[in-house]
Write a structure and sequence with these properties.
Strand 10 (107-115) and strand 11 form a beta hairpin. Residues 408-420 and 458-462 have low confidence and may be disordered. The longest helix is centred in the C-terminal third of the chain and has 41 residues, at 414-454. This protein is an alpha+beta fold and 477 residues long. The protein has four domains: 2-7 and 17-127, Immunoglobulin-like (Sandwich), CATH 2.60.40; 134-217, Sandwich (Immunoglobulin-like), CATH 2.60.40.10; 219-320, Sandwich (Immunoglobulin-like), CATH 2.60.40; 329-407, Immunoglobulins (Immunoglobulin-like, Sandwich). The chain has helices at 2-14, 414-454, 456-476; strands at residues 20-28, 33-35, 48-53, 57-62, 68-70, 75-76, 79-80, 82-83, 96-98, 107-115, 118-133, 137-139, 143-151, 158-163, 166-168, 182-188, 195-203, 206-217, 219-221, 227-232, 237-239, 242-243, 250-257, 267-268, 274-276, 289-291, 300-308, 311-328, 333-340, 348-356, 362-369, 372-376, 384-392, 395-405, 410-413. It is 16% helix and 46% strand. The chain contains three helices and 35 strands. The strands form eight sheets. Strands 1, 3, 4, 5, 10, 11, 13 and 16 form an eight-stranded mixed sheet that branches. Bound molecules: 2-acetamido-2-deoxy-beta-D-glucopyranose (2 copies). One 2-acetamido-2-deoxy-beta-D-glucopyranose (NAG) binds next to loops. Residues 352, 354, 364, 387, 389, 399 line the site of one 2-acetamido-2-deoxy-beta-D-glucopyranose.
């Protein structure tokens, strides 16, 4: 390298009147590089131009006559990988374009322009940046390395990484990395690492960039372990377990983890309403499960696992169950308390009143913050649904609803209360019907007796008649 500089230095010294400039150019491997060469257009004639590469000889040159020559390694079968656009010559622009650059193209170039016996020299250092990924599609948990190679490597350059256009700071700085001509990121593949990796090289005020894409396959939803899933008591909840499209895991297992094994949880029985959705009804990579009617005791940790390419992938999640506790007071007021089996991620509670008008249009009114709410049960305007919304740092986590019906003075949680209420109404109607029948019978008897009392003699006649009839019947037998 030093020798190259020396040679170009020498050229500059030996050529009388030569002006020398040194320019850094970065180009991503595979792209087109443009090597600048500018001279003052001091003469109206097109000068002779020579582009050459250190140790490689002439790249391209043009004589005053207009004849062009290509270096043997820069053209094959009549196609030229380098060109110098003529239309720019008048402006004193003799830039060299190199198509589809590769690492080998990195190095020192010189552009010499002869104008009226004077030579102007431009020196360009072309550096090729190349980002490569150990395997562009990695299965979650496998080792992955992303390396940034610059040819020739700019010592004292600052190199940093961007992942999906935001700065990426590697967790572990690679102290054991002896190769100083590369920057390498080594990580275990996770969804966090998926995307477009860009290596940014800053050197002498110039910036070079190159990118490569990394796809990570595995369980994409939930994307992290210990994700919390919130469900209202007696509602239906989906425990998500979605693999990357195209992945079909084998040996898929769903487990509920016993809480007592805090450090190494063991499996326990799955809830009775647990069902793994039928494979035909969904995409084959979606292994989510459903709990038809969540019970308070169903809360806890669940694990979904499956095997992909010999790698066992697991995802733990936590089901948090929410319910509303009701405390009725003699005064007719009722205190509602929003209760969750785990409140570690809950930062806020909000009570909202949901009212439906005659058209069935829903309107929601926020009432207050906090996890308890006291309202009068008898008040007509408190009729309807009372929903406790709970929030985490990133927004709403879930809600749970309580239903108040002031008309019948029957109330209960909406989801489970519905069937209870109908049963009650049916029972009551039946009782009323029986009562009505009894009353009707009593009234009839009463009326009959009243008639009889009006005619006391008739009573005896009726009696004798009936007695005689009975006697006759007995005789017949
Ligand atoms: C119900 O709908 C009708 C027609 O869509 C509208 O004119 C009326 O105002 C609505 N009533 C209420 C209470 O929203
Ligand atoms: C409660 O949550 C469900 C499901 O996310 C949503 O559809 C509903 O609108 C929420 N209700 C209220 C009052 O926020």
């Amino acid at each position: 390298m030093l020798l190259d500089y020396f040679i170009f230095g020498l050229i500059t010294i030996l050529m009388p009147g030569a002006q020398c400039e040194e320019t850094e150019v970065f180009a991503e491997a595979g792209s087109q590089a443009e090597l600048p060469c500018k001279c003052n257009p001091s003469s109206p004639f097109i000068p002779s131009i020579v582009w050459s590469k250190a140790n490689k000889g002439t790249v391209w040159r043009k004589q005053k006559s207009g004849l062009q020559y290509w270096g043997s390694s820069w053209s094959s079968k009549g196609t030229h990988r380098v060109q110098c656009p003529h239309n720019q010559f008048e402006r004193g622009n003799f830039n060299l374009q190199i198509n589809n650059v590769m690492a080998e193209d990195g190095g020192i170039y010189s552009c010499m322009v002869e104008n009226g016996g004077k030579w102007a020299v431009n020196v360009v250092i072309l550096r090729i940046i190349e980002v490569s990924v150990s395997s562009s599609v990695s299965v979650w948990g496998n080792d992955v390395s992303i390396s940034c190679k610059v040819t020739p490597w700019p010592y004292e350059a600052s190199v940093h990484w961007m992942l999906n256009n935001s700065p990426f700071v590697p967790k572990t700085e690679n102290a054991s990395n002896n190769d100083t001509t590369k920057s390498i990121v080594r990580e275990k593949a996770t969804a966090r690492l998926a995307g477009n990796w860009t290596c940014v090289v800053d050197y002498k005020g110039k910036e070079g960039r190159a990118s490569a894409a990394l796809t990570v396959k595995g369980i994409i939803h939930p994307s992290e372990d210990n994700t919390q899933v919130y469900a209202a008591l007696a509602s239906t909840v989906t425990l998500p377990c979605v693999f990357s499209p195209g992945l079909i895991p084998s040996n898929l297992v769903w487990e509920k983890l016993k809480p007592e094994f805090l450090f190494k949880p063991g499996p326990s029985r799955l809830p009775s309403s647990f069902s793994q959705s039928s494979p035909s009804s969904q995409r084959p990579f979606d292994k989510s499960a459903t709990l038809k009617e969540v019970g308070f005791e169903d809360e806890g940790r669940y694990r979904c696992s499956g095997t992909i390419e010999g790698q066992r992938l697991t995802r733990n999640m936590q089901l948090v169950v929410a319910k509303i506790d009701i405390l009725s007071k003699k005064t007719g007021s009722v205190t509602l308390t929003c209760q969750l089996t785990d409140t570690s991620k809950v930062t806020d509670y909000e009570w909202v009143h949901v009212i439906y008008d005659l058209n069935g249009t829903q309107s929601v009114r926020s009432i207050q913050k906090g996890n308890t709410l006291s309202i009068s049960k008898a008040s007509e305007e408190n009729q309807g649904e009372w929903t406790c919304r709970f929030y985490g740092k990133e927004g709403i986590l879930g809600n749970v609803t309580y239903h108040i019906q002031t008309m019948s003075h029957l109330s209960g949680p909406k989801s489970s209360g519905g069937s209870h209420n109908t049963a009650g109404v049916v029972g009551l109607s039946f009782l009323l019907l029986v009562l009505l029948l009894i009353l009707a019978q009593m009234y009839k008897n009463h009326q009959r007796r009243k008639r009889i009392f009006q005619y006391p003699a008739l009573e005896t006649i009726v009696h004798t008649v009936s007695n005689e009839r009975e006697e006759r019947n007995r005789v017949k037998k």
